[in-house]
């Protein structure tokens, strides 16, 4: 990992250092114009924050600067230029232009790009792309390298690391900041001295003022770089050479030795030390640890790589206190946890490691072990002693006595920094070299031969596991290890045990110590020590595992545990003693000391302490002594089978049937698992002993594994430990028991019922059965199955006694925690009770759907000759569990090499024995190469066909297992695809040289592909194959559909001030999650959002396409900061801006959407609505709270209670990371959360009654009948209405016409077809909204009853549906659409609630199959908030904007808004509302200006009493507003300006000839002339460029020639938003030939071949604002919603499968071009504004913050109103107050007289509320106050003021 980050540095050093040795000593005093050369690189910010106008200033600055540098440096100075935003772009390289004139000409023509601000990425780009010989760099010739960075804001990524790489390579770094640039970031980039390398100006025009100083600075830098050899450069404070590296650990006494009052002095010393170091990833790294009785790591060496972050972390340190000062334990912690590579240590790279200990008193524990460990690691130790008592200890541990600095008093400690820093810098700069002569003498022990097994509790956590590993390492280092000396084995246990290494696995110290790192902690709530001791005895103390027990060598077992055992330890411990095994027991934490004494051979062999760390530290010597000296008598008798308890010889088939419902829940699942594991650990699991199967159920059953899936106890326990609940509210126990009998107790699934083996069902449940169980229990009993019941929770104990075979086999625990203990009670009955096993009375039922065709296609080439036996064994293992027979499973085998060779067909053999004999007799056919593709075709056409035994025609599942040991020489993808299309399920098995990509291409999906390195490893695969092949058909269908492993994962991270200290843990959590995910554009996508007061995107789901890029970005993550924590707003932000198609979300493709919220406290705002919104769109939210987070709030946010985690500390988050990543990697349903069914619904059926549906109308009528049959029709339940439409709509009956189902059905049966040629769906939608869903028609929307519209359509609408659909949704009506193949699916998706609510069928005869699906959908629609009543014309509020009356809004603000105001302000501006904004007290000036249309309409009052002057200004401004008449444009009816915007990305390169052909076809139909049709062509990819503009050619022939000469642009990705912005700024302008100001139609024809990588919404809106009519043609890879957003209206969005099919839409395009004229006529204004009338709206701050000034605000409004001329045909006034939401005091048409208005204002009360949502309030005013229905007169061209 480290070497990766240094690759750029190493590459640079090789090139740069080789050539920077000076040859110019004589020129040291000369300036840069006298002979010295330089390579100068300009890295220029061109982000959106700069803007086009300011970019012109940047261009002018660069032009003048380079011109000046050329004058003083001549041709010796070479220049390169890179623009950067979200990604860097090379303008020119050093060797692009031979003269300065070429450089200057390029700068003059350079275009502004726009985007984000990723300065770090730009610096990285320079390193990799420009600072190379190939790009013209002359570093190897000793030429100075200079970089100038120009930026106007803070970078969105880390700049420190790439800048450090450049500086360390000798590059001179200059930083120029403009406007909002951050000073500390500029300094982070710049070289020393920063006074000459950092330049800052406040405005862009001011850049000209620094050119002279910058030229001087650059010249000096060139001269200096030529004056000294880089290799011998003297170190400068804050700078550094390549050698200036060190790892520094600060160890601070936090006990009472220091004291709370003195701790700030110590903290200040640390700050002073760090401040003067060159901190960075590749320079000095710093870690810090506080200690008292125990050490606490505050941050690691790799936690912070920037000095500012490090200083912030130190400033946050607090005094810990404590009586003890255990320096020894702290030194050991440093040695064990802070110096390794994983903690950021670089000892392996030769980087010196230092420790500075600061203490004010003696240590209260022994420092010897820690001191030795540090000296062994060559750590250089310094000491700071405060007072007299600390010096002795520090002199003992310090590397040299002179390295201890003393202060008599804590107040003098600050001065010690000046003494200590030279020592630290001496180590950093290698002027202090310490020869470590420490040698640790290990006592030579006379240790006899012995076998020692360490038995470790794996649940003790990562830190304690690390301590145990270190203990074992020290022990091994001190022992004579070898096969004839001391042997060591290790086993780990939790609920079940497993081997880490056997006694004979490793024969040397080195191998054992190396293997220790593989021991990882395990998660479990209980431990079973008894089972673990039995495991050691039965599985490890065996001769074949290395045990020398039979030779009399002492056998020792050392137990280390942190918990009490859940099972009995007495008998297992006794069994070990009987063998002569010497058992030692060490325990801590929750371990039971009495149990430890039962286990150990004597009390002297028991070691116990309160924690693992002190246990090992204080008892280590005693434990090592005992292990190396104890000896005992070992029985000489041979260990025989009789040592195993008798019950293990039992032979049974046991199926566990587990309740997976919410009655058990994830919190109780561990107890269920532990019960099963405790039971199984007492059984002898094996194919000829006990077999175990597992089935889970809730509303339906799910098989986890069959009886014959696993052959050992360990495998079964491992699988059970991975069990996850299915969840569900139903408990269908009877159905699950039936299913178990029919599907589990069957010979094909491993049941041995026919051989008389007892069949056992163990039902484990926590809830009452919700179906019939008694009769099913009888059926099981008659079949000879013994049923046991184990229950807890809400299970009915009495009922379960009747379910059990006999009542005594029913076991119940009062709480789930008691379930594990029931294992001891159930065992006697489980091994002794026998049911009726007379199989003659029970005829085994044939499993329905058990037929299978299984074909093997195996490698038959010469290369597999030696391994063919493994292949045959593989086939036999796959087919052994199958029930082979002519009417059951059929098997075929084919070998292949260059051609396929048949071994036998599917119908050749009828029995399993025959098949196995045939496989055993196979011989390799031979051949040199593999043509697997050809063989796959043979399998499809011949082997799996009906002629040779294939049963696909009978719907029998067909499986193909392809096994190869090499790469195919022909194509496998197409024939594999043909097999899959035919329904065959292929598995790919690759061995040795097989191509994994080919194996994956062959397989049904990636999870069906298996790859192993050797043929001997094939034995691991058959079981996994059988899991699929043996599945019941219905489950197989489900599995085959579960192929999507894609995920969209968003991390929403708390960036508020409270969470600052938690950032390292949060960052590490995200990094670990990403590290384990399968990241890729078509796999897992990741986004990171930071929030506090507001939310901001750090990177979204499409920003990074690789794991490496995401991890790099995560490591650079910085704290956001902010006082408040508005989690609700952040959740809403994520829904609106992140889980969207434009941001990379694939929710429309069914990809699971997952949100991880990490928060450190309670939200300041409400989270309920936003959380519910996320659930509604199917986002699975995990709510992870730390520190002060509220449990109730987390539960509201989380998708379910299982996804809530509330942790006490930030660091604890790492403990749950493995569980969370495991969830993400498992099967996830992407469907939205099921919501509680509403008992009431208002349902309107809108039926297509046009002529097209006449023959289909009976089917439509029948469908409506069937739907109504499933509903509960009643006045207080479901109400039904039916409307039919064609050109116009017609109501058949309203929601309140019929209240009984029979009446509704009768009315439906009487329906007659309406008829009509046209189909106006838009008109019909508006009609049902206004009439069918009206209260007068029976709608109950005011009671929150769901309003549902079911639209049935057979064609494309002939009118616009977009606005009507939007109006429906705005009124909370949920449209569900069903269309035939004649309907337009995109149109239906636009109308529908969301695209998943739109369904397509071939014809209406097929509609019946939709019935169940639609009923299910209707039941999931929840109750809703009541709609706001729309005002009738009489009760409306009077806006006269439709009559041309000016609309005025006067907004008073007393603070900064808590939401975004920009979009709302822009929308008001678009409506023509004139907005005056008055800010008071804490209002934000920039926010005020952004809301106001012009700066002279934005006012700020320092005090509430200063409003009178502003009042007069507003009144006078309102009177001066003039409304000039707008002259209707004139245009040539035969003229059009047509622009083609062509996809020029890398993806379109092969199809570019098709694109050119299409443009030529359209051109031939145009009437090209300078006064008629004009044409332009622009290409785009990541950028846009003009091929020719509208004024370039005036004849058709010239245009066709230009088109023929077009060359493909190239580039990636598709930045369509930037391309549209480019058109607006560079193409649709008079200079480029556009005639839009003359009223000529502006037409855009846009070709899209993929999803845009940037936001298209704002640019698309701008195109519509300038009147451009966009026709958009998209391939199948384009995003449908993007097409519709850009297009003029939905019918202007035309889909094609790929560019080769463009001719199919040619006629549509020509038709739309011809229609363009009509649109121009429609939008042309016809009159000027009426200046005698004004609509004035006052929007005032009604929050708590404005309470004290409310009287002044009211007075201000009164005075303003006094000056107006109020009346119906004159001025109108409205007043609205807002805080969290907006409330109308009165509307524009509420009062017609001035007195009424003034009286209302005088009686107006303060609203109250928090926070201040100005954006929301502006939107409210736009939608509800300036509308015509409430008095707005915009349509009458009346000015509107806000």
Automatic annotation (TrEMBL):
Q: Which UniProt keywords apply?
A: Cell adhesion, Collagen, Extracellular matrix, Glycoprotein, Repeat, Secreted, Signal
Task: Note the InterPro entries from the entry.
Answer: ECM_Assembly_Org (IPR050525), VWF_A (IPR002035), vWFA_dom_sf (IPR036465)
Primary place of residence? secreted
Tree of life domain: Eukaryota
- The signal peptide, as residue positions, is 1-26
- Bias (Low complexity) ranges: 1420-1434
Does the record bear Lyase in its keywords? no
The protein depicted here goes by the name Collagen alpha-3(VI) chain-like
Q: Identify the species of origin.
A: Pundamilia nyererei
Which taxonomic lineage does the organism of this UniProt entry have? Answer: Eukaryota, Metazoa, Chordata, Craniata, Vertebrata
């Amino acid at each position: 990992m480290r070497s990766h980050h240094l690759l750029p540095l190493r590459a640079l050093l090789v090139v740069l250092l080789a050539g920077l040795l000076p040859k110019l000593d004589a020129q040291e005093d000369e300036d840069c114009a006298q002979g010295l050369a330089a390579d100068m690189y300009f890295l220029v910010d061109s982000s959106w924050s700069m803007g086009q106008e300011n970019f012109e200033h940047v261009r002018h600055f660069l032009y003048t600067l380079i011109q000046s540098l050329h004058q003083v440096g001549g041709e010796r100075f070479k220049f390169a230029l890179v623009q950067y935003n979200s990604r860097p772009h090379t303008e020119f390289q050093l060797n692009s232009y031979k003269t300065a004139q070429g450089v200057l000409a390029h700068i003059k023509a350079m275009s502004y790009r726009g985007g984000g601000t990723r300065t770090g990425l730009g610096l990285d780009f320079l390193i990799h792309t420009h600072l190379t010989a190939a790009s013209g760099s002359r570093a190897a010739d000793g030429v100075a390298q200079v970089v100038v960075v120009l930026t106007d804001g803070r970078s969105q990524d880390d700049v420190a690391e790439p800048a450090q790489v450049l500086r360390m390579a000798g590059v001179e770094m200059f930083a120029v900041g403009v406007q909002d640039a951050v000073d500390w970031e500029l300094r982070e980039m710049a070289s020393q001295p920063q006074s000459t390398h950092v330049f800052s100006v406040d405005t862009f025009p001011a850049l000209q003022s620094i050119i002279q100083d910058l030229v001087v600075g650059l010249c000096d830098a060139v001269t200096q770089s030529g004056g000294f050899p880089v290799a011998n450069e003297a170190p400068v404070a804050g700078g550094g050479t390549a050698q200036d590296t060190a790892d520094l650990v600060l160890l601070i006494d936090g006990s009472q030795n220091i004291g709370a009052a003195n701790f700030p002095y110590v903290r200040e010393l640390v700050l002073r030390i760090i401040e003067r170091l060159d901190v960075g990833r590749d320079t000095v790294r710093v870690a810090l640890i506080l200690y008292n009785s125990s050490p606490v790591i505050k941050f690691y060496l790799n936690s912070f790589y920037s000095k500012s972050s490090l200083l912030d972390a130190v400033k946050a340190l607090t005094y810990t206190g404590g009586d003890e000062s255990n320096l020894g334990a702290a030194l050991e912690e440093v040695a064990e946890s802070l110096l390794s590579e994983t903690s950021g240590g670089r000892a392996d790279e030769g980087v010196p490691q230092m420790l500075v200990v600061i203490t004010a008193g003696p240590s209260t524990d022994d420092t010897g072990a820690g001191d030795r460990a540090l000296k062994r690691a060559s750590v250089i130790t310094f000491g700071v002693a405060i007072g007299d008592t600390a010096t002795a200890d520090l002199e003992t541990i310090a590397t040299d006595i002179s390295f201890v600095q003393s202060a008599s008093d804590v107040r003098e400690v600050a001065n010690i920094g000046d003494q200590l820093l030279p020592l630290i810098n001496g180590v950093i700069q290698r002027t202090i070299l310490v020869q470590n002569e420490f040698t640790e003498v290990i006592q030579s022990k006379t240790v006899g031969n012995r076998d020692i097994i360490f038995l470790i509790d794996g649940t003790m956590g990562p830190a304690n596991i690390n301590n145990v590993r270190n203990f074992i390492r020290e022990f091994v280092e001190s022992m004579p290890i070898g096969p004839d000396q001391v042997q060591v084995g290790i086993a780990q246990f939790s609920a079940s045990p497993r081997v880490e290494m056997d006694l004979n696995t490793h024969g040397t110290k080195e191998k054992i110590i190396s293997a220790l790192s593989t021991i990882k902690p395990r998660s479990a709530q209980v431990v079973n020590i008894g089972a673990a001791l039995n495991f050691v005895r039965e599985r490890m103390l065996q001769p074949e595992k290395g045990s020398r027990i039979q030779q009399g060598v002492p056998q020792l077992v050392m137990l280390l545990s942190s918990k009490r055992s859940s099972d009995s330890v007495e008998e297992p411990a006794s069994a070990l003693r009987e063998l002569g095994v010497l058992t030692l027991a060490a325990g801590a934490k929750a371990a039971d000391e009495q149990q430890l004494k039962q286990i150990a051979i004597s009390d002297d062999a028991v070691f116990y302490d309160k924690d693992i760390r002190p246990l090992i530290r204080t008892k280590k010597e005693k434990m090592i002594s005992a292990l190396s000296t104890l000896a005992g008598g070992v029985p000489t008798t041979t260990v025989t089978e009789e040592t195993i308890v008798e019950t293990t010889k039992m032979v049974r088939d046991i199926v566990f049937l587990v309740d997976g419902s919410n009655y058990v829940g994830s919190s109780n699942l561990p107890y269920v698992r532990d019960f099963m594991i405790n039971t199984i650990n007492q059984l002898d699991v094996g194919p000829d002993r006990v077999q175990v199967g597992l089935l889970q159920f809730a509303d339906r059953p799910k098989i986890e594994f069959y009886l014959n899936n696993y052959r050992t106890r360990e495998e079964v326990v491992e699988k059970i430990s991975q069990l996850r609940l299915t969840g569900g509210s139903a408990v269908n126990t009877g159905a699950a028991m039936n299913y178990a009998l029919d599907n589990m107790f069957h010979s094909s699934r491993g049941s041995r019922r026919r051989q008389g083996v007892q069949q056992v069902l163990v039902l484990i449940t926590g809830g009452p059965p919700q179906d019939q169980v008694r009769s099913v229990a009888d059926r099981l009993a008659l079949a000879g199955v013994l049923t046991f019941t184990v229950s807890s929770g809400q299970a009915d104990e009495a009922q379960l006694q009747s379910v059990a075979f006999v009542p005594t086999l029913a076991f119940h625990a009062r709480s789930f925690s008691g379930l594990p203990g029931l294992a001891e009670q159930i065992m006697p009955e489980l091994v002794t009770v026998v049911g009726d096993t007379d199989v003659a009375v029970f005829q085994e039922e044939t499993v329905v759907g058990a037929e299978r065709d299984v074909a093997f296609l195996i490698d038959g080439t010469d290369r597999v000759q030696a391994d063919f036996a493994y292949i045959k064994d593989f086939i036999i293992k796959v087919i052994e569990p199958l029930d082979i027979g002519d009417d059951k499973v059929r098997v075929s085998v084919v070998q292949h090499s260059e051609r396929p060779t048949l071994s036998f067909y599917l119908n050749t053999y009828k029995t399993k024995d025959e098949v196995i004999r045939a496989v055993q007799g196979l011989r390799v056919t031979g051949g040199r190469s593999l043509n697997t593709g050809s063989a796959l075709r043979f399998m499809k056409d011949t082997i799996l066909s009906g002629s040779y035994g294939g049963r696909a025609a009978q719907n029998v599942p067909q499986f193909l297992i392809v096994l190869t040991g090499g790469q195919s020489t022909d194509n496998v993808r197409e024939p594999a695809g043909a097999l899959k299309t035919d329904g065959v399920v292929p598995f790919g098995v690759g061995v040795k040289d097989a191509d994994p990509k080919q194996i994956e291409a062959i397989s049904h999906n990636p999870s069906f592909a298996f790859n192993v390195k050797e043929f001997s490893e094939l034995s691991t695969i058959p079981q996994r194959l059988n899991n699929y092949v043996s599945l019941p058909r219905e489950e197989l269908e489900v599995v085959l559909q579960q192929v999507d492993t894609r995920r969209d994962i968003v991390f929403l991270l708390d960036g508020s001030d409270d969470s600052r200290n938690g950032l390292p843990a949060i960052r590490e959590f995200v990094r670990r999650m990403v590290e384990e995910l399968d990241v890729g554009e078509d796999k897992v996508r990741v986004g990171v959002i930071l929030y506090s007061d507001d939310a901001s995107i750090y990177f979204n789901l499409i920003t990074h396409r690789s794991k490496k890029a995401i991890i790099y970005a995560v490591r650079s993550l910085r704290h956001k900061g902010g006082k408040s924590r508005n989690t609700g707003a952040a959740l809403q932000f994520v829904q609106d801006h992140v889980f969207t198609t434009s941001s990379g979300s694939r929710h429309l493709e069914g990809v699971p959407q997952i949100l991880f919220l990490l928060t450190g406290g309670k939200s300041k705002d409400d989270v309920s609505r936003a959380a519910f919104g996320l659930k509604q769109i199917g986002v699975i939210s995990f709510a992870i709270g730390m520190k002060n987070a509220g449990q109730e709030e987390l539960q509201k946010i989380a998708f379910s209670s299982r996804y809530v985690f509330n942790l006490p500390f930030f660091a604890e988050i790492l403990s749950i990371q493995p569980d969370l990543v495991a969830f993400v990697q498992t099967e996830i349903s992407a469907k939205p959360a099921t919501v509680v069914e509403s008992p009431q619904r208002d349902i309107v059926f809108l039926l297509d009654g046009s002529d097209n549906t006449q023959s289909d109308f009976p089917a439509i009528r029948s469908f409506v009948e069937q739907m109504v049959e499933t509903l509960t029709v009643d006045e207080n339940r479901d109400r039904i209405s039916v409307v039919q439409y064609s050109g116009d709509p017609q109501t058949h009956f309203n929601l309140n016409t019929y209240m009984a189902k029979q009446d509704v059905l009768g009315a439906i049966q009487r329906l007659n077809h309406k008829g009509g040629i046209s189909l106006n769906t838009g008109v019909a939608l508006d009609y049902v909204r206004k009439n069918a869903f009206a209260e007068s028609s029976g709608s109950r929307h005011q009671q929150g009853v769901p309003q549902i519209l079911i639209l049935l359509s057979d064609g494309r609408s002939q009118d616009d549906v977009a606005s009507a659909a939007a109006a429906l949704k705005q009124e909370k009506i949920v449209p569900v659409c069903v269309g035939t193949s004649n309907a337009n699916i995109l149109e239906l998706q636009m109308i529908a609630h969301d695209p998943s609510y739109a369904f397509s069928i071939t014809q209406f005869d097929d509609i019946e199959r939709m019935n169940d699906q639609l009923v299910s959908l209707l039941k999931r629609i929840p109750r809703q908030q009541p709609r706001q009543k729309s005002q009738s014309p009489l009760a409306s509020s009077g806006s006269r904007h439709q009559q041309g009356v000016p609309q005025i809004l006067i907004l008073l603000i007393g603070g900064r808004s808590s939401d975004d105001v920009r979009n709302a302000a822009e929308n008001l501006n678009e409506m023509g509302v004139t907005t005056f904004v008055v800010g008071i007290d804490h209002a934000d000036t920039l926010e005020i200006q952004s809301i106001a249309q012009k700066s002279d309409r934005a006012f700020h009052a320092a005090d509430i009493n200063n409003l009178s002057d502003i009042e007069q200004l507003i009144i006078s401004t309102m009177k001066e507003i003039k409304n000039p008449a707008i002259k209707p444009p004139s245009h040539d009816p035969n003229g059009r300006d047509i622009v083609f915007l062509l996809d020029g990305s890398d993806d379109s390169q092969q199809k570019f000839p098709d694109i050119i052909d299409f443009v030529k076809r359209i051109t031939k139909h145009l009437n090209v002339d300078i006064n008629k049709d004009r044409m332009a062509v622009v290409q785009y990819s990541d950028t846009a460029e003009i091929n020719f503009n509208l004024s370039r050619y005036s004849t058709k022939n010239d245009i066709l020639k230009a088109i023929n000469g077009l060359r493909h642009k190239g580039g990636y990705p598709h930045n369509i938003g930037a391309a549209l912005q480019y058109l607006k700024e560079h193409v649709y302008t008079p200079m480029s030939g556009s005639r839009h100001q003359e009223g000529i139609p502006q037409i855009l024809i846009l070709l899209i071949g993929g999803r845009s990588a940037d936001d298209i919404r704002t640019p698309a809106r701008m195109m519509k604002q300038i009147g451009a009519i966009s026709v958009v043609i998209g391939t199948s890879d384009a995003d449908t919603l993007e097409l519709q957003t850009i297009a003029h209206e939905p019918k202007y969005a035309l889909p094609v499968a790929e560019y080769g099919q463009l001719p199919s839409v040619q006629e549509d395009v020509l038709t739309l071009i011809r229609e363009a004229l009509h649109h121009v006529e429609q939008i042309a204004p016809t009159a000027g504004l009426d200046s005698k009338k004004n609509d004035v709206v006052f929007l005032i701050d009604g929050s708590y913050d404005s309470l004290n000034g409310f009287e002044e605000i009211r007075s201000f409004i009164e005075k303003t109103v006094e000056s107006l001329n109020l009346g119906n045909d004159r001025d109108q006034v409205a007043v609205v107050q807002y805080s969290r939401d907006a409330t109308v005091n009165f509307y524009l048409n509420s009062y017609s007289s001035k007195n009424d208005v003034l009286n209302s204002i005088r009686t107006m009360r303060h609203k109250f509320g928090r926070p201040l949502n100005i954006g929301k309030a502006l939107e409210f005013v736009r939608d509800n106050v300036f509308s015509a229905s409430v008095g707005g007169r915009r349509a009458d061209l009346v000015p509107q003021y806000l």
